[in-house]
Design a protein that fits this description.
Blueprint (H helix, E strand, L loop, with lengths): L1 H19 L1 E14 L2 H9 L2 E4 L1 E13 L4 E18 L6 E20 L4 E23 L2 E8 L5 E4 L2 E13 L2 E10 L6 H4 L7 E10 L1
Parallel strand pairs: 7-8
Antiparallel strand pairs: 1-3, 1-11, 2-4, 3-4, 4-5, 5-6, 6-7, 6-9, 9-10, 10-11
């Protein structure tokens, strides 16, 4: 009987909480600054290549699910560009550009500090899942350019895995419905296929600047 009473109280509290929640949706877009992790950087450095940051973008939509006045859950779905660039240390005419396109699903916990009636400071963190929908390795040199598909292990494919998983950390400020913020995506998955890359690890690293609007 005691367990039944406790269970009923918890269910009632949950129902009340669900009714009290605030659910909105919004859109967000911005700039990506990406690399491919320290391990690949060291490997390319030994081959006389320097790793350079690649510039891309992201765009998508999200749900803003208020569980309390200050605590929110924010799942989203985004299209984004990641990758990396390498340049020969002695001759910058030899370059490798890696362009990767992903569909990404972050699920963030967001705590909001009220700075005034209309301004809030956001602190965000949570996991993300991503799936590579396309990508190219482009090799540039004096004898011409060559390309191969980034994902897959077949002929003319660079040996990258499509699935990625990691953690996202960010902060920003909202002015009424407008949000401006930054985040860092720490890829935890080695997206390099072992048969193609031996012991080399390739992990996505991304610093992003975003602007959003909540409806």
């Amino acid at each position: 009987m005691k367990r039944m009473i406790v269970s009923a109280v918890l269910i009632a509290a949950l129902v009340v909480g669900v009714k009290a929640q605030e659910i909105k949706w919004g859109v967000k877009a911005g700039l990506n600054l990406t690399t491919a992790g320290k391990d690949l950087k060291d490997v390319m450095k030994d081959g006389d290549f320097d790793q350079k940051t690649k510039i891309g973008f992201h765009i998508g939509a999200f749900l803003d699910w208020g569980l309390t006045e200050n605590f929110y859950i924010q799942p989203g779905l985004y299209y984004g560009n990641k990758g990396v660039k390498f340049e020969n240390k002695e001759d910058d005419s030899y370059k490798t550009k890696v362009n990767l396109s992903y569909l990404e699903l972050p699920i963030l916990a967001s705590y909001r500090f009220s700075l005034s009636d209309n301004i809030k400071w956001h602190v965000n963190a949570g996991p993300y899942l991503a799936y590579g929908i396309g990508g190219k390795f482009k090799y540039e040199g004096e004898e011409g350019d060559e390309k191969e598909d980034a994902f897959g292990t077949g002929e003319d494919e660079a040996g990258l895995k499509r699935f990625d998983f990691g953690l996202s950390f960010g902060t920003g400020v909202s002015f009424n419905a407008i949000y401006v913020g930054v985040k860092y995506d720490l890829g935890l998955t080695n997206i390099a296929d072992k048969d193609s890359w031996d012991d080399t690890k390739i992990k996505n690293r991304n610093f992003a600047v975003s602007v959003g609007y909540t409806f």
